[in-house]
Specification:
Order of helices and strands: HHHHHHHHHHH
Oligomer: single chain
Strand content: under 5%
Shape: globular
Amino acid sequence: HDVKWILRAIGDVELDRRFALLQLRSGYRHFPSGISLLKQVTGCEHRDIQRSLGTSPHLLTSGYILGLIADCVRPKFVICVRALFDLQYLSQLHNLNIDILNDITRALEIFHQFKQIILDLSLHVGKSGAAMTHFQIPKLELLQSIVSCIKWLGALPQLSADVTERLHIDLIKAPRENTNNHDYYPQICRHLNHNE
């Protein structure tokens, strides 16, 4: 939702233009065409976008989008989005301690304190495109229990689907390009056997 709110706040074309102007940085993926047209984004790509989008003192990385949007949106919106990004980054850390869990809780509190600006600017819309007047979103509701889940399950990256996504791409999607779309499964099996 955060990226959709940002896209609605400054517009697809403007955000894509600003992304295209960013200087290349070693270790960061560059999005020369912007991010508004991305479809079926994998978890890894989503993290690459997040690395460009937010900031976190715990990751010693500075994101771009807060600087990209700061001059064209209200400060309360920047604070709200920053809090949400911090929450996302901090919850993805592999080593969590009580200080980081407190930072996650504080980021969630800041988000709730400033989230009204999203409704005031009509940035939160439903499937019909009409502005919504509430935040009854299951994903946002689940954030309330993120600290207790981390305490119960441990670090969240262990629950990532990256491995299965990568295997699906390597073992299903890539070999499919070499088929004629008839007798799909036998052709993929032959392709995989041939590569081994």
